[in-house]
Amino acid sequence: MTRKEIIAKVMETGLTHNAAKAAVDTFLAGIANAMGGGDYVKLSGFGTFYIKNKKARRGMNPKTGERIQVQAKKYPAFRASPELRLLINE
Question: Which Pfam families match (predicted)?
């Protein structure tokens, strides 16, 4: 489902296109800002968005075979709620 399709679904509640777009954009920006600040976002019945850490490690450039040091980094992750897992597996 794309952002455009989500906006169309929100419009089914009676909002105008601009109001629905603003609502979806505000919602997604809120999630992004919370995660950017290091917080997690829990949506009951849906799941939790959180940040995972990847440790620094030794790697290799596949083109040259040179050994390199890959820096530690953070990345977003999602854990589905039991209700969502059940819905998906039906």
Answer: Bac_DNA_binding
Fill in the amino acid letter for 82: P
Q: Which residues contact 2 (CB under 8 A, 6 or more apart)?
A: none
* Alpha carbons 63 and 70: distance in angstroms, whole number: 16
As a whole number of Å, the CA-based R_g of the chain is 19
Task: From 69, 71, 72, 73, select the one nearest 61 (Cα to Cα).
Answer: 69
Per the CB < 8 A criterion, the answer to whether 79 and 47 are in contact is yes
pTM of the prediction?
A: 0.76
∠ Cα 72 32 30 (to 5°): 155
What are 19-35's pLDDT values in tens digits?
999 999 999 999 999 99
CA distance 8 to 25: 13
